[in-house]
Design goal:
By secondary structure, this protein is α+β, with helices and mostly antiparallel strands. Helices cover about 30% and strands about 10% of the residues. A two-stranded parallel sheet has the order 1-2.
């Protein structure tokens, strides 16, 4: 009986040992195959709120740090002790911070 892969976002071939598995998906290559370069991200000038949980296993937290670094007007919020549903684990704080971000001319500056 084949069991589902406990790490569905790790790219492996059938029966490939973990020691030979790749490090995971390329953070610059979304599911549609399009690649976002640093230069392309730098052209996105809209204020962007990037939110993630410290223990998110669906979208690795490092990807949020990288995204926020490459978007010129990004603000990053990482919630401690939370996963992919961080905004639901910290709803009051998230609403407060999102409202502040949306209402401000210079959010979090």
């Amino acid at each position: 009986m084949d069991l589902p892969d406990p790490h569905p976002f790790r790219h492996t071939t059938d029966h490939q040992p973990d020691s030979q598995a790749s490090a995971g998906p390329d953070p610059a290559r979304p599911h549609n195959g399009q690649t976002f370069t640093d230069a392309a991200l730098a052209r996105i000038t809209a204020p962007t709120l990037v939110v993630n949980g410290r223990r998110d296993i669906m979208i690795p937290t490092i990807n949020s740090y990288l995204l926020a670094q490459h978007l010129p007007n990004a603000q990053l919020i990482v919630y401690p002790d939370s996963g992919h549903g961080s905004i639901f684990q910290y709803p009051d704080l998230f609403v407060s911070q999102a409202a502040r971000f949306l209402d401000a001319d210079q959010p979090f500056s």
